[in-house]
Design a protein that fits this description.
Blueprint lengths: L5 H26 L6 H19 L1 H10 L5 H34 L4 H4 L2 H25 L3 H7 L12 H43 L18 H9 L23 H10 L1 H14 L2 H67 L5 H25 L1 H19 L1
Helix pairs in contact: 1-2, 1-3, 1-13, 1-14, 2-4, 2-13, 4-6, 4-7, 4-8, 4-12, 6-8, 8-12, 9-12, 12-13, 13-14
């Protein structure tokens, strides 16, 4: 039995990392309800693309690099076009995620439309359909070099064996154009987040929080409860009050005795009601109670306004911190994509001749991007970190029993 070489072990390790990492992300997204968001729908579809790449493309790449291609020209064309399809689908998912974050930060008013279920499903359909059409076109226009190589006993099956025009077309559509667009979108995202954060800081320092530093509100009526009461509850007509009630602040002129007798004879019930009402209104205890109620009502309203203002500021800052974290995670994922795929894209488009080991490293560095994405989400996304911790914590509790 032949021993497996160290480079082959490295390729097998990358393949296992791609499959296991994306399986974990897939399981966490499906089982954790807090991750059922618009962006994570796209992440879920990206995970499926990377998982299919690890299951159906990478094992044949290991065979190709370690022992050559033993499956014939037709299988080689199918494998290369399947590789183009899944790799391009993975890249276009990253583009869709960047566009989703761009709309969330730059166009918050229009974002509810973008984040609707129908629109997200349509975006997912596009990022799968467009790479499929590209791969189908590549499969149709591939030249007959595969048959010639098979007849001359050449067992090499690599994408660089395609014509220059096909390589330029597939390289531009699969990597160059979406890569440039992703860079522009993420630069705009970070500029918007930084500018919004600065504007919020300036407002909080220069004006929006001054309401907390005002002097205590003093209501003059609270000093003189009787005056406040007279302004609030004194009847419009003084003559409506009986003459015999005590009025220390504003004494009323006495009426003629004949008028008193007429009022008592014509409407005795009204006289009793007015008497009770006046005695109740002019009670010193009630006057103080109403005065303090008015004062505390005004203070409570001011306090409620201040609390609402503070709550809105905290919610805005919390939302901005969330957007900043998501933008940071997306930016790191896009940066990893640029780092992993740029070397191979340069070789693929320009057909630069390099040693075989260099080509293998660059070729597999692009594949490694599918293994890096789950790690980046686990490290830099707080929601994914919490979900992974719960997953492993529940498994540890299960093993302890």
């Amino acid at each position: 039995m032949e021993q497996i070489s160290i480079p082959t072990l490295g390729l097998i390790s990358v393949n296992c990392a791609v499959v296991i990492g994306n399986l974990l992300v897939l399981y966490v997204i499906l089982t954790c309800k807090t991750l059922h968001t618009t962006t994570n729908r796209l992440v879920l579809s990206l995970t499926i693309a990377d998982l299919l790449l690890g299951m159906f493309i990478l094992p044949f790449a290991i065979i190709q690099d370690s022992a050559g291609w033993p499956f014939g020209s037709i299988a080689c064309k199918i494998w290369i076009n399947a590789d183009i399809f899944l790799s391009t689908a993975s890249i276009y998912h990253l583009l869709a995620i960047s566009f989703d974050r761009y709309m969330a930060v730059r166009q918050p008013i229009k974002y509810p439309i973008i984040s609707s279920t129908k629109v997200v499903r349509f975006m997912i359909l596009l990022v799968w359909l467009f790479p499929f059409l590209l791969a189908s076109g590549m499969f149709t226009f591939v030249n007959a070099d595969f048959e010639k190589k098979e007849q001359s006993n050449q067992t090499e099956c690599k994408p660089t064996t395609l014509d220059d025009g096909l390589r330029w077309m597939s390289g531009s559509i699969s990597f160059i154009i979406p890569g440039i667009v992703m860079i522009i979108l993420n630069i705009q995202i970070f500029r918007t987040v930084v500018e919004t954060s600065r504007s919020m800081t300036i407002k909080s320092k220069n004006g929006s929080l001054r309401v907390h530093r005002k002097q205590p509100i003093i209501i003059k009526e609270s000093i003189d409860p009787t005056l406040s009461l007279n302004k609030l509850v004194r009847p419009k007509k003084i003559d409506d009050l009986p003459h015999n009630l005590p009025q220390p602040d504003h004494p009323q002129p006495e009426k003629d005795p004949k008028d008193k007798e007429k009022e008592s004879q014509t409407d005795p019930e009204k006289s009793d009601k007015v008497l009770k009402k006046s005695s109740t209104i002019d009670s010193p205890t009630l006057r103080h109670l109403i005065s303090h109620t008015v004062v505390f009502g005004v203070l409570e309203a001011k306090k409620t306004n201040i609390i609402n203002h503070i709550t809105q500021k905290r919610m805005a800052r919390r939302s901005m911190r969330t957007e900043m974290r998501v933008a940071r995670t997306t930016g790191i994922v896009v940066a990893a994509f640029i780092f992993c795929w740029t070397p191979f894209a340069i070789l693929y488009v320009s057909d630069i001749q390099v040693p075989g080991i260099i080509f293998t490293i660059f070729f597999w560095l692009g594949y490694a991007n599918s293994a890096v994405n789950p790690l980046l989400y686990a490290i830099f996304s707080r929601d994914f970190r919490i979900a992974f911790k719960r997953l492993f914590a529940s498994k540890n509790k299960a093993t302890n029993f």
